[in-house]
Structure formats: structure tokens, C-alpha cells
């Protein structure tokens, strides 16, 4: 008989907002299988979590951690090591180091990197298992079913199809991944998942923002409306040696998914210190592992007497020229090569600007070049270049704003132009002023691409403003022309300061160069303190009259078009 979880009420708390000073938060990426090198999909997950982490830090929202790492146990790794003629520990050490290197190179601000082969993790998993056992959530039974090693899971008939190979033999394969499944019958420990169906439904109904974006929330609700059979959570040790043995039964190995999910607790020092952080956790995951995170993980946590994570952010997949990335197609994209070709910031910008969590997105070289050149090199870099060019701004300062040229108006649509600013200038200033809040709200809803879309639009508007008033035609020697010229530059630099500040979570190196050129000090770069055009509102502007930082050249160099698809041909 399953005893009720010790602390049931907590999972049903409404997920708190990430805002609020001093509030701790764990952000996590999945931990990735150490059976092959990282590709751009893995880096994308890490970049989403990184951008959330950096944005939160800049908002001064309280201490946060970002965990990532490698998932090293299981049949998949055992078989990959055998195929590579090496041992699982050797394979895992090599691949894990590559993930560490890829995330470091991509400037992912992780604070914790966990490997499931580490003793701290193995101890946490054993403790978690014992908690499940003591609370009556496990029983031993014979399990029969189709097992997919690539997905490390048993699949129901509804998720299977048949494939005929070149020799005319028929194989059962997974509909989702296309990988072969094998009939498996063995004695296993079973987890009473079915007992949690109602509790899981209640959790989701009470926390409509727990799984985001909305279509994934609906998908999980749908799953929970169907049959939810108990889950086999161990394998016979004779079949699977590469894994953590069941604490009280050395003939069984703990199922790799239970082992892997516990990483979110072991990074926090479970079972001793996790309470300082847990359950303030936001998991970023791909859609392929949604069921594990939104059904199995919450059920396991409830069964172990722990609270549920606050939010699960789900994203879709990258395809390459419309095709799924796969080793057999030879189209797996190497993130190291991408950083070299597009620069770290260029590639970060592309993935986060073009990645839409709700749907699969397509990568190809020409698209990256087009997006990065038009938005980073031309629009943003061009704007900085134009507004700081010696011909326009010979004193190399942040010039003064003139209220006479750009007077404050209550409603620009009903006011005859008093100064030199036109109605569209007022419209664009309103749009930039509201940008920090719009961006924060998109980050909160895991719609980072929309935040970047808004910023890109404002950058275009600023270029329009600059172009419209042709400051290069104004005569600096004429005092009234000079006031207007300085005001145009002041407004433009204020816009650039806002864009540089808001872009820090996405293109940290470029944003740093931009802000340094504008002489914005490190303590002035927080999003929480971001004000825009204070002089328009009659407040002092600390930047006015300040000497600009040194000119370190072009902000972002245009990427060359390539005639061959260099990166796509570089196989992993
Ligand atoms: O599933 N596009 O690890 P994994 C975008 N170890 N993201 C992609 C992607 C693509 N084409 N391909 C993979 C596992 N990903 C388990 C996780 S967590 C406790 C255990 C990303 O190496 C995406 O985040 O197969 C996906 O969920 C994850 O990599 C799967 O990585």
C-alpha cells in the first residue's frame, strides 16, 4: 500500500514568480548522454537556460544557479563504449569533457556541471531510491515490453511501427525516433506511477504556468487523461552493468532515467542541503523528454516526499535544411565549428533569435549569415558607427539633450510639433521606453525570440530616426542646429545603451564592447536600474557630457557568404 507523500501540500502551491529580491532559483538544462559529442541542439538548450540565468542576474532577482552536465549510465552508453572499443568510464570522461568545453566556449554561465558517474550523485540516487522504497512506492514484478535502447524506455504498441530493411527483414521501431525496439521480459522494480495520476492532474490544474509554452502544458494534460501504467525502474544487472545498483538488491541496476532525473537534486547537495534551493527550480528541456520531466519526475518527487519544481520550460528541435539531425544522414552540426564560422555571439544570437520553443526550427548557413549580418553587423553595429563617427560627434562625448528641440508632450498625436521632433519620433521613444518591461515579460514566458524581435525592431526604428533627421547635414557652428544635432546623437546613444544592456544575456561579448564604447560602467549595466532618456522626463542623465570609451573598431564584422556549406559538410 502506498503511503501518502510526507509533504503533499507543497507541490500544489502556485508557482511563484521569478521576480522578487533575494529569491533563490536553480535553472537547469537536461544532462546530456555521453555517447556522442555535443551538437547545436544541446547547445541551444544550454543557451536558453543561460540567457534566462543572465537576465535574472542583471535584474538583481536574487541568487541563482545554472546546472548542466552529462548522463553517463545505461545501456546506450554501455553499447556505445563497446562499439567504440573502449570502456564506459573512458568514453564518458572524453565526451563529458567535450560538453564542458562546448558550453564554456559558448559562454554558458553554468555554475554546476554534474556527471552522473560522480560519487556525490550516486549517493543522492541511492538515498532517493531508499525514500521511494520506504514510502511504499515500489514493488517487484515481472515486466514485459518493447524496449528502445536509444530512447532508454519501454514503448507501448501505439508508439511502434514496422520497418523493412535492405534484406527484406521486418523490424519493430519507435515512431518517434525510428530506432529499433527489442522485446524484453525480466524481473524489475516497478514504480506505482498509476497512483499519482489524480495528483498530477491537480498539480497542473492548480499551476497553469508550470509547463510553458502552453501547447506543451496541454499535451501533458492530455497524457494524464490517458491510461498511466506503472513504470519499470530497474533492469537486471546481468543485462545492464553500467549503472547504479539498487541499494538493497545488487542483482538490479537503477533505471537510467531515475538516475538522471535525480541530478537536479544532487547538484543541490541532496539529501543534506537541497532544501536551501529546492523546489525553486526551473527546468529547460527539449520536447523529446517532456514526459520524463512533466509526468515521471513530479510523480517520483511526490512519492519521495519532495515538492515539485516550479516550472518546466520546453523547446522544440532544430532541423538542418528541413531534415532531422542524425548521424546516419551525416548532417549533425558541430557547435565548435559554428562558433568559429559565426563567432560565439553571432551563433548565440542566431539560435536565440530564430529558435521558437513551440515549433521546430531550421538551421542552414545562409540563414545564419543573413540574420547576423542584417541585425548585428548592419543595424546595431551600423548605428553605433554612425552615431560615434568623428564627423558627426567630433568631441567623442555623450552630448546634451535639449528640451527645446525635443519637448515633453502629453499626447504627441494631438500636439503640433513644438520643437524639432516629429510625431514618429515620439512614437519611437515610447516604444524604446517600454522595451525593458516587454523584454522581461518575454523572458518570464520563455519567449526569448520575441524579446529579440522587439529589440531588433527598435534598432530599426532608431536607424530610421537617425536617417530621417540627417544629422550630417546639420551645421555644428550654428547654435540652434548644434542643439538639435546633439539631441539626435543623445537620443541615439540612449537607445544603444538600452539595447546593449538588454542584449547582455544573449550576446555578452558584443554587448560588453558596445557598453564600453558608450562609457557605461559595470555597475550601470543592470537591467533593474535601466532608465531610458531621463532628460526627456526632466531628470538628470548621468551620461550627459561624459567622454565616450575608446573606439575599438567595428562592433560586429559582417560574415562572409560561403559558396560551400562548410559547416554542414563537417561531420561529427
Ligand atoms: O535525453 N534540437 O539526453 P540527450 C534542439 N540524457 N535540442 C535538441 C536537439 C535538437 N535537434 N537534440 C537534442 C537525454 N536536443 C537525457 C536527458 S535529463 C535528466 C536526461 C537537446 O543527450 C534537448 O534539450 O538525448 C533534448 O531534450 C536533449 O538535448 C536530449 O539530450
UniProtKB/TrEMBL annotation:
Supply the EC number(s). 6.1.1.10
Q: Which GO biological process annotations does it have?
A: methionyl-tRNA aminoacylation
Give the primary localization class. Answer: mitochondrion
Pfam families reported in the protein's UniProt record:
Anticodon_3 (PF19303), tRNA-synt_1g (PF09334)
CDD domains cross-referenced by the UniProt entry: Anticodon_Ia_Met, MetRS_core
Q: Which InterPro entries match?
A: Anticodon_Met, Met-tRNA_synth, Met-tRNA_synth_2, Methionyl/Leucyl_tRNA_Synth, MetRS_core, Rossmann-like_a/b/a_fold, tRNAsynth_Ia_anticodon-bd
Gene Ontology terms, cellular component aspect?
mitochondrial matrix
Residue span(s) of domain Methionyl-tRNA synthetase anticodon-binding:
439-521
Query: What family is reported?
Result: Belongs to the class-I aminoacyl-tRNA synthetase family.
Task: State the name under which the record lists this protein.
Answer: Methionine--tRNA ligase, mitochondrial
Q: From which source organism is this entry?
A: Bambusicola thoracicus
Q: What is the lineage of its organism?
A: Eukaryota, Metazoa, Chordata, Craniata, Vertebrata
Amino acid at each position: 500500500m502506498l503511503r501518502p507523500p510526507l509533504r503533499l501540500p507543497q507541490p500544489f502551491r502556485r508557482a511563484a514568480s521569478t521576480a522578487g529580491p533575494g529569491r533563490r532559483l536553480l535553472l537547469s538544462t537536461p544532462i546530456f548522454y555521453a555517447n556522442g559529442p555535443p551538437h547545436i541542439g544541446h547547445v541551444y538548450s544550454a543557451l536558453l537556460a543561460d540567457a534566462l540565468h543572465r537576465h535574472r542576474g542583471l535584474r538583481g532577482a536574487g541568487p541563482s544557479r545554472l546546472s548542466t552536465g552529462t548522463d553517463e549510465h545505461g545501456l546506450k552508453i554501455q553499447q556505445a563504449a563497446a562499439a567504440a572499443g573502449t570502456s564506459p568510464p573512458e568514453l564518458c570522461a572524453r565526451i563529458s569533457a567535450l560538453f564542458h568545453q562546448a558550453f564554456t566556449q559558448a559562454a554558458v554561465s553554468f555554475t554546476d556541471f554534474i556527471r552522473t558517474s560522480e560519487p556525490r550523485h550516486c549517493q543522492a540516487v541511492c538515498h532517493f531510491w531508499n525514500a521511494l522504497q520506504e514510502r511504499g512506492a515500489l514493488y517487484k514484478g515481472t515486466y514485459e515490453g518493447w524496449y528502445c535502447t536509444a530512447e532508454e524506455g519501454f514503448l507501448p504498441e501505439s508508439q511502434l511501427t514496422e520497418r523493412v530493411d535492405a534484406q527484406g527483414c521486418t523490424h519493430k521501431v519507435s515512431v518517434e525516433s525510428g530506432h529499433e525496439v527489442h522485446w524484453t521480459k525480466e524481473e524489475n522494480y516497478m514504480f506505482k506511477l498509476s497512483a499519482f495520476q489524480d495528483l498530477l492532474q491537480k498539480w497542473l490544474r492548480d499551476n497553469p504556468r508550470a509547463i510553458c509554452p502552453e501547447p506543451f502544458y496541454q499535451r501533458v494534460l492530455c497524457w494524464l487523461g490517458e491510461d498511466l501504467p506503472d513504470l519499470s525502474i530497474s533492469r537486471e544487472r546481468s543485462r545492464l552493468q553500467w549503472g547504479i545498483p539498487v541499494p538493497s538488491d545488487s542483482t538490479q541496476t537503477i533505471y537510467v532515467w531515475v538516475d538522471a532525473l535525480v541530478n537536479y537534486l544532487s547538484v543541490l547537495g541532496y539529501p543534506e542541503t537541497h532544501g536551501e534551493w529546492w523546489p525553486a527550480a526551473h527546468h529547460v528541456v527539449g520536447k523529446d523528454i517532456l514526459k520524463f520531466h512533466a509526468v515521471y519526475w513530479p510523480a517520483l518527487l511526490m512519492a519521495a516526499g519532495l515538492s515539485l519544481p516550479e516550472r518546466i520550460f520546453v523547446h522544440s528541435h532544430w532541423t538542418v535544411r528541413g531534415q532531422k539531425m542524425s548521424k546516419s544522414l551525416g548532417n549533425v552540426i558541430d557547435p565548435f565549428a559554428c562558433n568559429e564560422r559565426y563567432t560565439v555571439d553571432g551563433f548565440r544570437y542566431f539560435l536565440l533569435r530564430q529558435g521558437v520553443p513551440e515549433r521546430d526550427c531550421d538551421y542552414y548557413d545562409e540563414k545564419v549569415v543573413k540574420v547576423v549580418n542584417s541585425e548585428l553587423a548592419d543595424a546595431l553595429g551600423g548605428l553605433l558607427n554612425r552615431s560615434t563617427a568623428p564627423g558627426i560627434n567630433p568631441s567623442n562625448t555623450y552630448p546634451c539633450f535639449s528640451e527645446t528641440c525635443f519637448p515633453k508632450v502629453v499626447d504627441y498625436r494631438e500636439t503640433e510639433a513644438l520643437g524639432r521632433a516629429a510625431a514618429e519620433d515620439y512614437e519611437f521613444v515610447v516604444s524604446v521606453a517600454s522595451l525593458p518591461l516587454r523584454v522581461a515579460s518575454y523572458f518570464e514566458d520563455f519567449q526569448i525570440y520575441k524579446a529579440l524581435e522587439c529589440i531588433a525592431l527598435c534598432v530599426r526604428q532608431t536607424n530610421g530616426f537617425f536617417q530621417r533627421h540627417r544629422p550630417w547635414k546639420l551645421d555644428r557652428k550654428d547654435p540652434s542646429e548644434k542643439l538639435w544635432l546633439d539631441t539626435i546623437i543623445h537620443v541615439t546613444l540612449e537607445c544603444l545603451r538600452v539595447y546593449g544592456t538588454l542584449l547582455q544575456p544573449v550576446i555578452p561579448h558584443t554587448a560588453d564592447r558596445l557598453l564600453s564604447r558608450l562609457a557605461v560602467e559595470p555597475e550601470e549595466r543592470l537591467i533593474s536600474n535601466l532608465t531610458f532618456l531621463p532628460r526627456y522626463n526632466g531628470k538628470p542623465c548621468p551620461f550627459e557630457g561624459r567622454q565616450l570609451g575608446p573606439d575599438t573598431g567595428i562592433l560586429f564584422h559582417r560574415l562572409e557568404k560561403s559558396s560551400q556549406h562548410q559547416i554542414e559538410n563537417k561531420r561529427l
